[in-house]
Amino acid sequence: MGKKAGRSNGPSAVELVGKKVRGGKRNALTTASAPVRRRRIVHKSGWPRIPDVQLKPLPEVAQIHRGGPPARERLAIRAEIVCNSGMAESKKYEITVTARASFVPEQSDEAQSRYVFAYTIEIANTGTVAAQLISRHWLITDSAEHVQEVKGLGVVGEQPFLKPGERFEYTSGAAIATPVGTMRGTYQMVAEDGTRFDADIVPFTLSIPRTLH
Known about the structure:
The protein is an alpha+beta fold. The protein is about 15% helix and about 35% strand. The chain folds into 2 domains: about 15-70, no CATH class; about 95-205, Immunoglobulin-like. It has 3 helices and 8 strands. Strands 3, 4, 5, 7 and 8 form a 5-stranded antiparallel beta sheet that branches.
């Protein structure tokens, strides 16, 4: 995006209209009866003083106003177009993942520090192009900061292909060594046009009942 228009360091509109006076002596009054010659008043900068009535808009300035909005407004419009374009591109490849987890006591063994949880995942294509889930990457962390990293193709043996608006839901399980933990990760997706992108799985909590307050 271009830089914000600022004040130019070059000559102003007044300076461009005038012409610089080159040398020469000023005419002085010779006698009282002699014709009076009007002296030309010159600024210290060397530019002649020009009455306001003589000023005319520069051609390039006039063209800007005739051809469209001022430069500052054009920059704002350009920024809005670029921003909207980026948002549309992001929305194009968008997979929304939601999760919910529950404790499975019949498969857990607290004496052996084994806590099993079932989690249900819903994967929704909220973008504008169809996409297929290729693989998964999980990070499962217990309250002792022990991390299990899980990678594999698909989910529950499937690689669902989702058109815009379609959803896929599955249930799986995880075991950790503490009563509380978290899960987070990503699904690796390939869009119908060949674009590869990740669908984020927002962290969610694994907890046995009455552990969290």
